Amino acid sequence: MQYILMLYGNEGGWSKLTPAEHKQAAAAFEAYTEALKKTGAFRGGSRLQPVSTATTVRLVNGKLQVLDGPYADSKEQLGGFYLIDVPDLDSAMSWAARCPAASHGVVEVRPLFVAPG
Amino acid sequence: MSDRDAAKHAHTTAAAVARRSYGKLVAFLAARTRDVAVAEDALSEAFAAALADWPEKGCPSNPEAWLLTVARRKAIDSARRRSGGEVAVVQQQILAEDFDAAARGEAIPDHRLALMFACAHPALEAGIRAPLMLQVVLGLDAKTIASAFLMSPAAMGKRLGRAKNKIRHAGIPFSIPEREELSGRLDTILDAIYVAFTESWTDPGRIDVVRRDLADETIYLATLVTELLPREPEAMGLLALILHAEARRQARRNAEGEYVPLAEQDPALWDSQLIDTAESLLLRASTLGRIGRYQLEGALQSAHVYRRRTGVANWAAVVQLYDALLALSGSPVVAINRMLAIAELHGAAAAVDTMQELDADVRLTGYQPYWAARAALLASTGADTEARHAYEIAIGLERDPAVRRFLQRRMSALAPP
After folding, report:
1. Is B188 a member of any domain?
2. Closest partner CB to B365 (pick from A27, A39, A90)
3. Which phi and psi angles does B11 have, rounded to 5°?
4. CA dihedral in degrees (B174, B178, B180, B183; nearest 10)?
5. Which member of A96, B120, B173, B318 lies 3.0 to 4.6 Å from B189 by CB, making a disulfide possible if both were Cys?
6. Structural domain range at position A28
7. What ipTM was estimated for this complex?
8. B408 in A contact zone (CB under 8 Å)
9. CB–CB contact A100 B155 (8 Å)
10. What is the CATH number for A69?
C-alpha cells in the first residue's frame, strides 16, 4: 500500500541550528532516504522551500483569488514529504517513527486513496 | 475534615487501591463472568461510584471489598441488560460464589495468573497478547499502550476489543494449565512480557532507546509471575534479564544525553542492587535444572557484569552462551549478536566469515541492528567504503536521535570517500 508521510516542523527552529547541526540533520535525512531506497519502500519525496515562498489559489464565485503564504497558518509548517510503498499501516508507522523529522516535529501518515474496483 | 480534604482523601485511597489491586479485582471478576470487558467495565463503574460516595460517607475500612460488592452489582446489571431482563440464574450464582467471603473482608483469591494465561492464550493473535496483558492486568489505557507499540489509539482499542470478544465467544478458559502443559503455555506469557519490555526499550546490537514507563510495568509483571509460580526457572530467567538491562539504564547516556554503547559504559554507574537480585534469580533458576532461552539471555547479561568485577569482559563465555542460544532459537538476531561477540574474541576478520551467511537473509534488509553490526565490523577490517554504506542504512533505520548521532560520529571517523 502507498502512504504519504507529511513532515511538519517549526521552520524557525532550523535557522537556530549551528552549521555542524545542519550538516548532521541533513545527513540524517540522507541516510533515511537511503534506507527507504535500500528496502524498496521509496517512491518519491522531497524537502520543500520555506512557507514564505508559498502561494494559494482558489476560485471564489468564479473569480480567481491568489494569496501570499501557506493555506494553513500553524505553528508547525509542512516542510517535506515522502511517498512510500509498504505492506501495511504498521510498517508505514515504523518508517514515520524513524524519520528524523519525528524527533523535532510531527510526521503525519496518510494512505493514498485507491479507487474501488 | 473539609469537603475538599475528604475528596482528596477519597482520590488518594482509590488511586492506591487501583495501583495495588486493579489486576486482582479484574481477575476475580473475570474469572466469574468469563468476560474481561464486562469485568473491566464493572470495575471502572465501581471506581467512579467510589469517587462519588467516599468523600461524603468516608472511605470504607476495606476498600477492595467495597469495590468488589459494587462491581458485582454492576456486572449483574450488565448481564441482565444483555439477556433482555432474564438473568441467567447460573450466572448470578457464579457471581455470588465466594463474593460474600471477599465482601466480608477475607482475602480476595488471587486469579491474576489465570487471567494472564487467558490474555496470552495461543488462540489469540500473538501481537495482541502483550498489549492485552498490560491493559487487563495493569489497567493501562489504550492510548498509552498504543504509543508504546507504535499504533494509533483507535486501532489499538479495536484490536483489544476484538481480543476480549474472542476470549468470551471462544470460551478461552481462565485457568492455570495442568502441570504437563504449564511450561509450554507459560512461554506465551513470558514472550508477551518480553515483547512489552523490548518495546519499551530495544537493545539489540547494543543499540538502545530509553522509554521509561513501560519498563517499570514489565518488571512488575515479570516479578508477579515469579511470585505466583516460584518453581519456574524460565520466569526467573526473564526477570533476571530485564533487571540486568534495567541496571544499566543510567549508564546508557552521558551527561550531554549522548548514547554510550555497552563496551564504553562505566560499570560503576550500573545499579548494583538490581544486578545482585538478577544474579541470585539466575542462581536459583539454575538449581531447578531446566535451561531455556530466557535463562541463557539472562546469563548473557550476567557475563557483561563480569567486567564490573574484573575490569575485563569475558567474551569467551559470551560466545559460548550465544552458541547455545543460536542452537535453541536459530534466530538471525541471535546470530548478529554472536557475530559481534566473535569479533571481540577472535578479531573482526573471523567474524566477517560468519557475516557472509547472514548477508543472504532477506529478513535482515530492514533490520537496523544488522546494519549497525555490519558497519562496525567492516569499519574495523578497514573496508571503509562498504562500512560507510552500512552506516548510512543503519542511521536511516534508527528511531532514536541520540543513537543516530552516535552512528554518524562513527561514520565520519572513516576515511573520506
Report:
1. no
2. A39
3. -60, -45
4. 40
5. B120
6. 2-111
7. 0.83
8. yes
9. no
10. 3.30.70.1060
Would you say residue B35 lies in a domain?
A: yes
Q: How many domains does chain B have?
A: 1
B46 domain-assigned: yes
Per-position b or e across B25-40, b if 16+ CB within 10 A of its CB: bbbbbbbbbbbbbbbb
- Which three three-digit cell numbers place residue B84? 433482555
Number of domains in chain A: 1
Closest CA to A3 of A29, A25, A26, A36: A36
Q: Which domain holds residue B28?
A: 3-109
Side-chain half-sphere exposure of B25, counting CA atoms within 13 A: 30
Q: How far apart are CA B211 and CA B201, in angstroms?
A: 6
On whether residue A6 sits in a domain, the answer given is yes
Tell whether A116 is covered by a domain.
Answer: no
Which chain B residues contact residue A39 at CB under 8 A? 365-366
Residue B229, C-alpha cell as written in the block: 509460580
B151 touches chain A (CB under 8 A): yes
- Amino acid letter at B141? D
Residue B8 lies in a domain: yes
Q: Please check whether residue A94 lies inside any domain of the structure.
A: yes
Cβ within 8 Å, pair B150-A90 = yes
Contact B396 A27 (CB under 8 A): no
Question: A103 contacts in B (CB within 8 Å)?
Answer: 401
* pLDDT tens per residue across all 417 residues of chain B: 577 888 888 888 888 888 778 888 999 888 888 889 999 999 999 999 998 888 888 888 888 889 988 998 888 888 777 765 555 554 555 556 556 666 665 667 788 899 999 999 999 999 999 999 989 998 888 888 888 888 888 999 999 999 999 998 888 988 888 888 888 889 999 999 998 888 776 433 333 333 446 788 889 999 999 999 999 999 999 999 999 999 998 888 888 888 998 888 999 999 999 999 999 999 999 999 999 999 999 999 998 888 888 888 889 999 999 999 999 988 888 999 999 999 999 999 889 888 888 888 888 888 999 999 999 999 999 999 999 999 999 999 998 889 999 999 999 999 887
